[in-house]
Automatic annotation (TrEMBL):
Component of the oligosaccharyltransferase (OST) complex. It is a single-pass type I membrane protein. It is found in: Endoplasmic reticulum membrane; Membrane. Residues 31-284 form the OST48 N-terminal domain. Subunit of the oligosaccharyl transferase (OST) complex that catalyzes the initial transfer of a defined glycan (Glc(3)Man(9)GlcNAc(2) in eukaryotes) from the lipid carrier dolichol-pyrophosphate to an asparagine residue within an Asn-X-Ser/Thr consensus motif in nascent polypeptide chains, the first step in protein N-glycosylation. N-glycosylation occurs cotranslationally and the complex associates with the Sec61 complex at the channel-forming translocon complex that mediates protein translocation across the endoplasmic reticulum (ER). Residues 298-436 form the OST48 middle domain. Pathway: Protein modification; protein glycosylation. One of its GO terms (biological process) is protein N-linked glycosylation via asparagine. Belongs to the DDOST 48 kDa subunit family. It comes from Cephalotus follicularis (Albany pitcher plant). InterPro entries: DDOST_48_kDa_subunit (IPR005013), OST48_MD (IPR055459), OST48_N (IPR055457). Keywords: Endoplasmic reticulum, Membrane, Signal, Transmembrane, Transmembrane helix. This is Dolichyl-diphosphooligosaccharide--protein glycosyltransferase 48 kDa subunit. Residues 1-21 form the signal peptide.
Length: 436
């Protein structure tokens, strides 16, 4: 009896965690592992952490060198997302390493990487695998003598100001970020061979990556708009990654700091850091831009049941429902660029789907005059949204022998030729037999 009671108690404690875990029906990440170099980040970055908790996330903040670190147990992942606020860590504790982090992302989980000038090779290697390359020189930071905060007192212009945001409501929200973002950290560039990585916040044309404490002996390796301050990746498995060279960007100090760009009369009482980070984290953790397609149906025009096969030249109706996760519930997704393919080796029909503004997409078309095994395919890829890839197989057959018309109009010339041949043969035979 004691063992049964203990088992029930364990189930009672674990049940809320299971219910809050990542699932297709509620895709928002709930369990987040945050790795830090020092527990002082709990207080220095408390506004960011509290904003996550207020949105229902369960944060587990641990030291990056904790010997008990593990992302999974008995083949099941313990967390839905990973936040690396440990730039100087040379080696993770426990069973966590570079391969474990990459496997975590490959399994569809999300990742945030924030570094600073102390970034270790381990953290840089993780970023490189995600399509982002940090400046190799460990002494360099982003310097901008044109777009720096006027409140900076040291004069090295490493606290820079940027409002060169990506134009995407799904990533940054529909409310425009009025105040610019304060950035203090190192530069990175995008791997040209990776088509999935995007700049979210770019540096100004006057920025460059260098050591501010020494004179430039050679041209900087990264300059101007080639410098990315914040980048994101949406993998093909819909895992989302955010990479930034500024851990300070998440700090209470820069959240609360006023902003005035050098040479600009506009002064903002509060930076745009909090709004920018909050909105972008909503996208990273699937609170926005997460789509699902359900109820794929097709049938002949005038019927309701799905057939086992179609006949060439049949008229059919196709429909699918698409919804977007709002962070709390599924809402109808409305767009005019969703298409369906009727596919066999190549698309024989490519049709844009109409929407009823309530999530239902539909189209009608005629089955091509080609028989074989076809597929209904919906491949939807849009910036900032999870990809939709679905297919449904259906055979297409030709007419049976008893399904053709008795006399086919297009065959009249052949009918005429046949009867003309018979009439000619009869006349020839008559003349030949009865001529004198």
């Amino acid at each position: 009896m004691a063992k049964v009671s203990i088992f029930k108690a364990v189930i009672t404690l674990l049940l809320p965690l299971v219910c809050l875990s990542f699932s297709p029906e509620e895709p928002t990440d709930r369990r987040i592992l945050v790795l830090v170099d020092d527990f002082s980040l709990k207080s220095s970055h408390s506004i960011f952490f509290n904003s996550l908790r207020s949105r229902g996330f369960l944060l587990d903040i641990k030291l990056a060198e904790d010997p008990a670190l593990s992302l999974q147990r008995y083949g099941q992942y313990l967390y839905d997302a990973l936040v690396l606020f440990s730039p100087s860590t040379d080696r993770f504790g426990g069973s966590l390493d570079l391969a474990a982090v990459l496997d975590f992302v490959d399994s569809g989980h999300d990742l945030i990487i924030a570094v600073d000038a102390s970034a270790s090779d381990l953290i840089k290697n993780i970023a490189t695998e995600c399509g982002v390359d940090f400046d190799e020189d460990p002494s360099t930071v982003v310097v901008d003598h044109g777009s720096y905060a006027v409140s900076e007192s040291d004069g090295d212009h490493t606290l820079i100001v940027s409002n060169d945001f990506i134009r995407s409501d799904v990533m940054l929200g529909e409310t425009e970020i009025q105040a610019p973002v304060l950035f203090e950290g190192i530069a990175h560039s995008l791997n040209a061979e990776n088509s999935l990585v995007l700049k979210v916040l770019s540096a100004s044309p006057s920025a460059y990556s260098a050591d501010p404490s020494s004179k430039l002996s050679s041209p900087p390796t990264l300059i101007g708009s080639a410098i990315s301050l914040v980048s994101v990746v949406q993998a093909r498995n819909n895992a989302r990654i955010m990479v930034t060279g500024s851990l300070a960007m998440f700090s209470n100090r820069l959240f609360r700091s006023g902003v005035q760009k050098a040479g600009s009369p506009n002064k903002y009482p509060k930076s745009g850091n909090e709004q920018f980070v909050t909105e972008l984290s909503k996208w990273v953790f699937h609170e926005r831009g997460h789509l699902k397609a359900v109820n794929v149906t097709h049938h002949k025009v005038g019927e309701t049941d799905e057939p086992l096969s179609y006949r060439i030249n049949d008229d059919l109706d196709f429909s699918v429902e698409i919804y977007e996760w709002s962070g709390k519930s599924w809402e109808p997704y409305v767009a005019n660029d969703v298409q369906v393919q009727f596919y066999m080796m190549s698309p024989y029909v490519l049709k844009s789907l109409s929407t009823d503004q309530k999530g239902l997409y539909h189209a009608s078309f005629k089955v091509p005059d080609v028989y074989g095994v076809f597929q209904f395919k919906v491949e939807y890829h849009k910036l900032g949204y999870t990809s939709i890839s679905l297919s449904k197989q259906i055979p297409v057959r030709p007419f049976r022998h008893n399904e053709y018309e008795r006399f086919i109009t297009t065959a009249f010339p052949y009918y005429g030729a046949s009867f003309t041949t018979m009439a000619g043969f009869f006349i020839f035979s008559f003349v030949y037999l009865y001529q004198k």
